[in-house]
Design goal:
Helices cover about 35% and strands about 15% of the residues. With about 475 residues, the chain is α+β, with helices and mostly antiparallel strands. A 6-stranded mixed beta sheet has the order 8-7-6-3-9-10, sandwiched between helices. The chain starts with about 40 loop residues before the first strand and ends in a 14-residue tail after the last helix.
Length: about 475
């Protein structure tokens, strides 16, 4: 497969077409059943049928003639016995098909003559199952709505895949695994001695550079996340549980249109912030502590990943203020440096140098041992700042770009910028800073001449945070609703 052809190209949808006869209920939201969520030309909220077609054409362009590519959606995942988790479709399958039904499978083919076709496999309609779980799409509606070359009942996958392979002479076979073990077994069995490879590097190339529809969706997700963070700040008072803030954020995100929070949030009061991915979220918030919150909304497959830190009392103490302002300065300088062509390694080094500079200023590092450059590799810097400056993101919170662009920032790639300082209870740390944890995280899109900060509006200046929290008409407005 040729991934280099995919990286520089945008997939902006042009023109609109819709299946006007599609007026039946299916296994997901449609413009007919959910006009409050979707425009008439959209397959999923915010993403048009033309956009999905453009993505599939880009996929086919990256395949060599004689290729058969199997892409599995997620199966239903069980929480306890026969109780399922809320279903969220696998991102690559969603990106290419728009089909949000559990257990679906797509097979993409590029013939030796370069003819491109695709087949969608869905569960057959089952009135008894529909009675309990809701409407299923079925093959007839799948063909109309998602536009595959053919739609086939999933129970016929093995025989259909066998027939597909027979139409190719020594095909190249790819399989994207998602836990559908029956499908994966059939693919490997029918492929026989043919090598079955992963197509993930191709998907990474397709999805790394964002286009206008994706930017619009992430912008909406960021706006919802802004609302949720402000609600959380206004609801923070000593004595409530971290779980209250979790509930407030999920409530706020959902009423503004998010399907759910994008990941289990970190709601870390006081020393809990020393654990980078603390998700127990059930301690009581104490007066004098900071609250570190790493959370974000997901708007129809497009998440936000933000961290803010604020004082439980509504006002930063002097040591908290000193550490917070240090992290904020680092944060701003990293964002300024995040421009096209900048290497990931140089940003990580810059973060360490800036951290060393601030630790010298705070009196944590010994000035007699050298300047910030000399002490950037210090074990103390690694202790206080133990993670990366950020990561690529998109439909998945953590995305992996293809090798040819993995080491540098490129236009239309999306990143987090998330410096932090975490001071353990240790003799190497001045007592006044022990137990303080601060992280500030934003989501940026790299532009041709800089970057666009999608989450800039979420309060992060000290005066903005304290103003949000001291508004007497708003402070604690959601607390009583979530009291145990």
């Amino acid at each position: 497969m040729n991934t280099s052809r995919l990286v520089p190209r945008a997939c902006r949808a042009q023109g609109e077409r819709w299946y006007s006869a599609m007026t039946e209920r299916i296994g997901q939201a449609t413009p007919f059943t959910h006009p409050h969520l979707m425009k008439k030309n959209e397959v999923t909220p915010g993403i048009s049928e033309t956009e999905y077609e453009t993505r599939r054409r880009a996929l086919m362009k990256g395949l060599n003639p004689g290729t058969v590519l199997v892409v599995c959606g997620y199966p239903t995942k069980v929480m306890t016995r026969d109780i399922p988790y809320a279903f969220r479709q696998e991102s690559n399958f969603w990106f290419l098909t728009g089909c949000l039904e559990p257990g679906a499978v797509a097979v993409f083919e590029k013939s030796p003559s370069s003819e491109a076709t695709w087949t969608l496999f869905v569960e057959e309609k089952n009135p008894q199952k529909e009675l309990w779980e809701g409407v299923m799409t079925g093959t007839e509606n799948a063909k109309k709505y998602f536009g595959p070359t053919a739609a086939v009942e999933k129970k016929r996958f093995a025989e259909t895949f066998r027939s597909i392979l027979k139409t190719h002479s020594n095909p190249t076979v790819y399989l994207h695994k998602t836990g559908q073990t029956d499908v994966e077994t059939h693919v490997k069995s029918e492929a026989g001695e043919l090598k079955v490879d992963s197509p993930d590097i191709l998907f990474d190339a397709l999805r790394t550079c964002k286009n206008y529809p994706q930017l619009d969706m992430h912008t909406k997700s960021a706006s919802i996340t802004d609302y949720a963070f402000r609600a959380a700040m206004r609801s923070t008072v000593p004595g409530i549980s971290e779980a209250h803030i979790y509930a407030v954020m999920e409530y706020a995100a959902r009423i503004k249109g998010a399907q759910w929070l994008a990941y289990p949030p970190v709601i870390a009061g006081g020393a809990a912030g020393l654990s980078l991915h603390y998700v127990q979220n059930m301690q009581t918030l104490k007066s004098g502590d900071l609250l570190l919150v790493d959370a974000g909304a997901e708007y129809w497959g497009h998440p936000t990943d933000v961290t803010r830190t604020w004082p439980v009392d509504g006002v930063f103490s002097e040591p908290q203020r000193d550490v917070y302002e240090a992290v904020l300065r680092i944060h701003k300088q990293l964002i300024d440096a995040a421009t096209p062509g900048t290497t990931v390694a140089s940003l990580q080094h810059l973060n360490r140098v800036l951290t060393a500079r601030e630790l010298l200023h705070l009196g944590v590092l010994d000035k007699t041992k050298g300047d910030e450059e000399a002490q950037a590799g210090s074990p103390i810097v690694s202790t206080v700042f133990p993670h990366a400056f950020g990561h690529f993101m998109g439909m998945d919170i953590h995305e992996q770009p293809p090798p040819q662009i993995r080491d540098k920032l490129h236009p239309r790639t999306m990143h987090t910028i998330e410096p932090g300082m975490y001071f353990p209870y240790s003799d190497i740390i001045p007592e006044k800073y022990r137990g303080i944890s601060v992280r500030i995280e934003d989501n940026i899109i790299i532009a041709s001449d800089g970057n666009l900060n999608l989450t800039q509006s979420i309060p992060k200046e000290i005066d903005e945070i304290e103003h949000e929290m001291r508004d007497s008409d708003k402070r604690g407005e959601l607390v009583e609703s979530f009291a145990f």
